[in-house]
Amino acid sequence: MKLMTSTARGSAAVLTGALLIGSLAACGGGSSQASAKADTGSITLAIDSDSASFGYDPLRVSAAQRQFFEGLYDSLMTLQPDGSTGPGLAKEFSYNADNTVLTLTLKDDVTFTDGSKLDAALVKANLDRRSDPALSAYSAVAKGGAQEITSVDVVSPTQVSLAFAKPQPGFEKNLASTTGMIVGKNGVTDTASLSATPDGSGPYTLDPSTVKGNKYVMVKNDKSADASKYAYKKVVFSVVQDPQARANALVSGQADVAMLTSNTVDFAKSKGVGVTQIGGTVNTMISFDKIGKTAPAFAQEKVRQAIQYAINRQALVDALHKGDVPAWNALPKDSAGFTKDLETEFAYNPDKAKSLLAEAGYPNGFEFTIIASAQTQTDLQAVQKDLAAVGITMNVKMAASTDEAFAAVATTPLGYAPLNWDNPVGVMYGVVLNGFTNVQKATDDQLSAATGELAAAKDDAAAKAAATKLNTRLMESGWMIPLYEALTNQGYNTKKVAPVKFAGTNAYPLLSSYTPAS
Hints:
Helix content: 25-40%
Strand content: 15-25%
Distance between the termini: 35 Å
Shape: globular
Structural class: alpha+beta
Number of helices: 15
Number of strands: 17
Largest sheet: 9 strands, mixed
């Protein structure tokens, strides 16, 4: 979901990647790290899900896919190495006195792969797509969203203004991810074409050797002025869903960098691989159905709370996720809204779970089905035993196809995936409240209010108060049923790649941050 590192992961593509059947690849054993010949011409990244499962429209995904789409598209603003926001396609910006209008001054020398040029009309054409509910990146700025853009106006060929329904100080940071990515004229005019062909101005273009769903090959874009900021002439994103297979690909030299799960870190290190780590990703069960459409019991908040109490999170981590941290908070430990009070309030208590089930009208429990993949099956089987102990029968069904995995948000009451909370407001509006995990259109006034308060917070104290309310209500409502906080681990070939650095607290390194070992 990192909406997955371990996007927002905050996006439909990531959740589906977690549900899809794992593809075992790169399962060699011995290390070739010591003898690997440095190759500054190309780098291969082993990733855990198909970032382009929806095609090449960057607005159909969320921040979890930023690193992949960063190669193909430029954003209006950019994420900087320290996590701050810097200029991108917009070289300058300014707000009016009450922060209800943001004016962007654009670069005038940007060319897209279709040959079109960047101008204010093109930016307007992109942002005017915000009414399309399929565009996850725009969910927060669409009509009714907490950061609603009411109009986009062309001021001049190089200036465009965004008017908001209410003050939005600091909105520019949203334009440093997929929300700010701009598609060329052909792609905006014929959006269906983006399912097969990207239309960006990024530092790379898609090479014909790409095999969709398996490997994505990007080569330097000679039309991009920023291409020189990226060290490698070619970048290969290799989709390897199985965690051990990713680690094997790294130590055998088939990949230069890999997303590692915590239980494969020691193995990778023992083979001479370098590893850098950051927290912030909560592996969580997500209640898709809060109205009882797919399983009547899930309409009861007490039932969802019962599941919170039924799960022995510490035992799960001890058995399956060495190095990670049990989670009784929906938000990660380093977030403003984290509170240790929830560790006590939602501590493992099967007796309380049984009592809540009885109060909700299910003294003998109930039965439902959850869709799994090779990546999630073991965790779900552990949870299955905990739920069975309080009378709940959770059938774990392996996804038989991509279609079944995609459909799970509408056909099953509960899912499981990692969520990265680097941008909590974006995750809430893009995934939880208005996004793909709420296809039943359930509402929760407290969650909506807390998210709105967080979006409008003008200082750290206000942000902390709002985030704490949000975190607490996510747990109380059972919209989120977290299991553990995973460290995001970037393993890298020390003979070829310099130590990987994260951009502030963002779980996905900048694509430009990968550089050759000195």
